[in-house]
Design goal:
alpha/beta, 8 helices, 2 domains, 10-stranded mixed sheet, Spore Coat Polysaccharide Biosynthesis Protein SpsA, Chain A, about 350 residues
């Protein structure tokens, strides 16, 4: 199950008109990466809970057939939280363990290995943990070398022996039916505050799978910007084979141009992008469908959503320009998010 009902409040203004799972990463919706990782684990039946702009997710994903999955939707008239949303879909999971993934994650962990780990340990719950504790202002999760979780945020299990590794919870988890059945039905409940601390109050089989690959919670504009650049730099290992139909990274212009612009390394340009004479694009630039970069403009380390128009001689650095925005000629935007409603710091 992919948790996709949230408002994405921390990600505004990127989520003013899009649900968080559909924000584009290198010109592909974030949800496509998540589904790709799930499908690579051999899973074809996927559930999504919907609330904020759920119709947009339905319209984009449909039945899931084009991604090789079958999708079941759970409409939540009122958001039930991560645990409440999962409990509402209790029948979907049947008698097997439930893989639950938050809908704002970019990661390259092997989910098949996570599931095997969960089954091998006969765990009641297995959380995927990341060692980059100091990179994120999240609650501390302590785990020992045997994978036993000794501390989840404030709750501790004194019977678990150390030494311990400091980690953070990634938002990927596998839950046994015995845990699913403890979640109150049709009530707001959160996995991290209502369920997991309770597992440490008793001697439950509560395990952590320590991943070593790439993981990012794409929950703020700055982390969204970083995730795009990480993809461009090849820091995210591919989980599934691409079919080649999406726009790929390129070091040369993919559109008809007036003269010869300077296209630097690590850029991803939709084939419809138009680049003017003596413009400079890159390094680390994403430009979506219908973007225009006028003559003499300079764009670097920035993400341009569809139909952005950069005026002649404008300079865009370390910025996010949202859809349908026109940047006037000669403008300088450095470290900004520019949307139809205004400009704020990134």
């Amino acid at each position: 199950m992919i948790l996709a009902a949230g408002y994405g409040s921390r990600l505004r203004p990127l989520t003013d008109h899009l649900p968080k799972p559909l924000v584009p990463l290198v010109n592909r919706p974030l949800l496509e990466y998540i589904i790709g990782g799930i499908r690579a684990a051999g899973i074809q039946e996927i559930a999504l809970n919907l609330h904020y702009r759920g119709a947009q997710i339905r319209q984009w994903l449909g039945s899931g057939e084009r991604f090789g999955v079958n999708v079941t939707y759970s409409e939540e008239p009122e958001i039930l939280g991560s645990a409440g949303g999962v409990r509402r879909m209790r029948g979907f999971f049947g008698d097997g363990p439930a893989l639950v993934v938050h809908g704002d994650l970019l990661f390259d962990v092997d989910l098949r290995a996570v599931i095997q780990y969960h089954l091998l340990h006969a765990a009641h719950a297995t959380l995927v943990l990341h060692p980059a504790y100091h990179r994120y202002n999240y609650g501390l999760v302590k785990v020992n070398a045997q994978g036993e979780i000794a501390q989840f945020v404030g709750q501790q299990a004194p019977w678990v022996a150390g030494p311990f590794i400091d980690t953070v919870f990634t938002g990927v988890q596998v839950l046994d039916p015995v845990v699913l059945d403890t979640i109150p039905a049709e009530r707001v409940a959160i996995l991290t505050t209502d369920i997991y601390p309770r597992l440490l109050s008793r001697a439950e089989r509560f395990y952590g799978y320590l991943m070593q690959g790439y993981w990012s919670d794409v929950g703020t504009p700055h982390r969204y910007w970083e995730a795009n650049l990480d993809l461009l730099r090849g820091l995210v290992s591919p989980i599934e084979k691409r079919d080649g139909s999406e726009a790929q990274h390129t070091t040369a212009p993919r559109s008809r141009t007036i003269a010869y612009p300077q296209i630097q390394s690590s850029v991803a340009l939709d084939p419809t992008v138009r680049i003017g004479e003596k413009a400079s694009v890159g390094p680390a630039v994403v430009a979506g469908e219908g973007c225009e970069i006028a003559a003499g403009a300079h764009v670097s380390m920035s993400i341009l959503w569809p139909r952005v128009r950069i005026g002649q001689g404008a300079i865009i650095q370390r910025s996010i320009i949202l859809q349908d925005v026109t940047i006037p000629p000669g403008s300088h935007q450095v470290g900004k998010i520019v949307s139809a409603s205004g400009t704020i710091d990134l």
